[in-house]
Specification:
The complex is a heterodimer of chains A (107) and B (269).
Chain A: H1 13-16, H2 18-28, E1 32-34, H3 35-42, H4 46-58, E2 62-69, E3 72-79, H5 81-103
Antiparallel strand pairs in A: 1-3, 2-3
Chain B: H1 28-46, H2 50-62, H3 64-67, H4 102-128, E1 130-131, H5 135-156, H6 183-199, H7 202-220, H8 224-229, H9 241-268
Helix pairs in contact in B: 2-4, 2-9, 4-5, 5-6, 6-7, 7-9
Classes of the chains: A alpha+beta (107), B mainly alpha (269).
């Protein structure tokens, strides 16, 4: 096996971070996810979540839509095509790593 | 440490919370398990399909008066028409199982049901914070309804020679499926299967398949025959009602069951 084929090469540092992976996982499950849902589901503060969203948006993995619900500002997050691909690649690599770890003989 | 006191998932964070380098692989099974939990929670929170099940069940029950026939006293004979029906897919068929206005009822009920379902999903998305991509459901049901309205007149009208091919649309007539006026159930069934795909729900897929089977049975067989065999005689003029109430019962029972399940999940969450 060459180094290129190793599952760790499928890991993207932008996607691999636990909270950003969580954001992509949730937004892939819906047409779009509201900021408040992401904050509660991931146990993050608004500031921390905003920073993660900025990283993902700058990488083109999510789109952030700001609007209003009555007078209340609302922020919706939508995963992009590259975001779905990145998530799928990441989960495939993680699954393969776990499988290898489980298959490794105990020394 | 992040400003909020929430430590990133693993050590060595920078300002954006990048704590987990690909080199630290010890917690991968845990990470995968957490993602599965997040996905399952999001899916459960997003699911809201009990509403269209109950709504279309109630709309089916409300159609019952249109399926009851006025039997001429003493004759036991129904009058039938030989006129070409305008809306045969939706119940306007020259048979004896349905009466006038049924097709108009179903056009209004299907359009109203679609609109109410879209509003429901819009409201649910705002309340929960997760939106279901229900557009496929809207498009599928609308296309079927429009086809059910447009195909019969197009294939019946005397066209100029260049449009003669429109008579070929008769191929799309579903034959025996329309004679009992229950074809709208099949439109609802296909819509539910499209909704199951949008909702990514195995439960709704199973419900949709069961309902499709029930709708096919109601369209092809007189369910009152079964009742007769078990000793339950249906009143004259009401023979079509079991064909209507059976699919309605499937929708209402499954809607009530999924409402209870979704409510229990939300309380637990």
């Amino acid at each position: 096996m060459t180094a290129d084929q190793h599952p760790t090469n499928g890991l993207d540092e932008t996607v691999h971070q636990r909270h950003r992976l969580g954001i992509l996982t949730i937004t892939a499950e819906a047409q779009r996810a509201e900021f408040g849902y992401l904050r509660e589901a991931l146990g993050l503060t608004p500031g921390n979540l905003s920073r993660h969203l900025t990283v993902l948006e700058e990488a083109g993995l999510v789109q952030v839509e700001k609007g209003y619900s009555g007078r209340r500002p609302r922020t919706w997050v939508r995963i992009t095509g590259p975001g779905r691909e990145g998530l799928a690649t990441e989960l495939t690599a993680l699954t393969e790593l776990v499988r290898r770890h489980a298959d490794r003989p105990i020394s | 440490m992040a400003e909020d006191g929430h430590e990133p998932a693993s050590a060595g964070s920078n300002e954006a919370g990048d704590g987990e380098s690909p080199e630290r692989l010890g917690s991968q099974p845990e990470l995968l398990a957490q993602m599965k939990v997040l996905r399952r929670q999001a899916r459960a929170a997003r699911h809201a399909y009990w509403f269209p099940l109950v709504l279309f069940g109630l709309l089916t029950c409300a159609s019952v008066p249109f399926y009851v026939q006025n039997v001429p006293r003493g004759t036991g004979v129904f009058e039938t028409s030989t006129a070409v029906p305008a809306l045969p897919f939706l119940g306007d068929f020259p048979g004896f199982l349905t009466q006038g206005y049924l097709a108009y009822y179903w056009i209004a009920a299907l359009l109203g049901g679609l609109l109410a379902t879209q509003l429901w999903y819009w409201w649910h998305a705002r309340r929960v914070g997760l939106a279901t991509p229900a557009r496929a459901y809207l498009i599928t049901t609308t296309v079927l309804l429009v086809a059910a309205i447009v195909i019969p007149p197009l294939s019946n009208v005397q066209h100029p020679h260049s449009l003669h091919w429109l008579h070929g649309l008769r191929v799309l007539w579903p034959g025996d499926l329309v004679i009992r006026g229950t074809f709208p159930f099949l439109i609802i069934a296909v819509g539910l299967l499209a909704l199951a795909w949008a909702e990514r729900s195995w439960a709704l897929t199973v419900i949709g398949v069961v309902y499709t089977g029930t709708a096919l049975l109601a369209s092809l067989y007189d369910v009152s025959n079964v009742l007769y065999r078990i000793g339950w005689t249906v009143a004259p003029g009401s023979e079509a009602l079991p064909n209507v109430l059976l699919p309605a019962a499937v929708l209402l029972l499954s809607g009530a069951g999924t409402f209870a399940a979704q409510r229990r999940h939300r309380i637990a969450a």
